[in-house]
Write a structure and sequence with these properties.
single chain, about 400 residues, alpha/beta, two-stranded antiparallel sheet, about 45% helix, binds NADP nicotinamide-adenine-dinucleotide phosphate, binds magnesium ion
Length: about 400
């Protein structure tokens, strides 16, 4: 059979530890036999980031701006232990943070739904995608411990020196205070990324804040979303047969629990942090979550939601067998290949992505799976495969 041809390269960002091992197997067993794979390769493995003073991460993000679609393997975010383990020159920043800062996007996370791995919430029939705003609020907050009686104010000093003040509280004893901010530009990008992704995936978009209590801060989020929706997306949504729906965050939580799923839930930074862990664990496993960064300019970076699975990697290094789930990494590739096919008008590439996803899901539904899934499946007597065996089983079915 002739291999599928590509016209534009994907930006390939290789990574670390167990996911780096899976990355290679996925390419060799599932992709290279079928596709004349064109990628521009960037090695984001920690050793190479250290050698290049992390320039490779910046370069890979710039290449994503050029080619529009990237696929990324999980990478180590260095901490003190990694400094010694890899003899690092510096505690390099999180690659995801660096890439996100350059592409300015929103991260969308959706569970991969498989029969036999049932969500804990019985009425959830379709995936719920969380869109988390990744800038500001408490993550860029300033805080103070107030030692005793006194007055706390917010002070804005304009460039011309004029000041506006707002009383926070007259303390008559010790307490705490927090100041936080966001930027209209960042909220606008967040809104456009969400509307674009909803159109891309033909799903309703829900957004919620606490605007009844936070009449300026949260209300600005609500207003910006509504203004952009009315001006740029209303017609397109109607044409696609999808809906934009705003409500209060507590109402949204109640409705989400009673829903059937099948929509995108846009969340402010903190809400997204908390709710994505709730949604992903209720759907089964972090190894069954897709994650894509969508920039307002239409750049896409696909990855798995989990990390480098360090514990399994150390077993692998000792020559022990591992049973690491490669589904999220496979879906990062299929997401990127499908988007590449869509942008370049290569139908075969899009169909290949569909077939590979189907082969992956069918393999699990036939009872062949990795250990993490075997522990939670309702399928009777599943066959537990090792990391390589699972990928080979998918290859056979494909
Ligand atoms: P992790 O790699 O997500 O793994 C945590 C645990 O979750 C594993 O030990 C394993 O549990 C289970 N797990 C996660 N993915 C799995 C998979 N595909 N198959 C089977 N089990 C899986 O998180 P971590 O151990 O906290 O972090 C390791 C490294 O990843 C860190 O250096 C961190 O900086 C990095 N990280 C990177 C990203 C990213 O690049 N996007 C995201 C998060 C973390 P058991 O051990 O019980 O089997
Ligand atoms: Mg979190």
């Amino acid at each position: 059979m002739e291999k599928i041809k590509m016209t534009t390269p994907l930006v390939e960002m290789d990574g670390d530890e167990m996911t780096r091992i899976l990355w290679k197997m996925i390419k060799e067993e599932l992709l290279l036999p079928h596709i004349d794979l064109k990628t521009e390769y960037y090695d984001l493995g920690l050793e190479h980031r250290n050698e290049t003073n992390d320039q490779v991460t910046v370069d890979s993000a710039m290449a994503t701006k050029k080619y529009k679609v990237a696929v990324k393997c999980a990478t180590i975010t260095p901490n003190a232990a990694r400094m010694t383990e890899y003899d690092l020159k510096e505690m390099w920043k999180s690659p995801n943070g660096t890439i996100r800062a350059i592409l300015d996007g929103t991260v969308f996370r959706a569970p991969i739904v498989v029969k036999g791995i049932d969500p804990c919430v019985r009425n959830w029939k379709k995936p719920i995608t969380i869109a988390r705003h990744a800038y500001g609020d408490v993550y860029k907050g300033s805080e103070m411990k107030i030692p005793g009686a006194g007055k706390v104010e917010l002070v804005y000093t304009a460039e011309n020196g004029t000041q506006t003040k707002e009383l926070v509280h007259e303390f008559d004893g010790p307490g705490i205070v927090q100041g936080m901010h966001n930027l209209n530009g960042s909220i606008e990008s967040f809104a456009r990324s969400c509307f674009t992704y909803a159109l891309d995936t033909k799903q309703d978009l829900w957004f919620a804040t606490k605007d009844t209590i936070s009449k300026k801060y949260d209300h600005t989020f609500k207003d910006i979303f509504q203004e952009i929706y009315d001006a740029e997306y209303d017609d397109k949504f109607k044409e696609a047969g999808i809906e934009y729906f705003y409500t209060l965050i507590d109402d949204a939580v109640a409705r989400v629990m009673k829903s059937q799923g099948g929509f995108i839930w846009a969340c402010k930074n903190y809400d997204g942090d908390v709710m994505s862990d709730m949604v992903s664990s209720a759907f089964g496993s972090l190894a069954m979550m897709t994650s894509v960064l969508v920039s307002p300019e239409g750049y896409y970076e696909y990855e798995a939601a989990h990390g480098t699975v360090q514990r399994h990697y150390y077993k692998h290094l000792k020559g022990e067998e591992t049973s690491t789930n490669s589904v999220a990494t496979i879906f990062a590739w299929t997401g990127a290949l499908r988007k590449r096919g869509e942008l370049d008008g290569i139908k075969e590439l899009m169909e290949f992505a569909d077939r590979l996803e189907k082969a992956t899901i069918d393999t699990i539904e036939s009872g062949k799976m990795t250990k993490d899934l075997a522990l939670i499946t309702t399928i009777k007597h599943p066959t537990v495969l090792n990391s390589e065996g699972f990928i080979k089983a998918i290859a056979e079915r494909l």
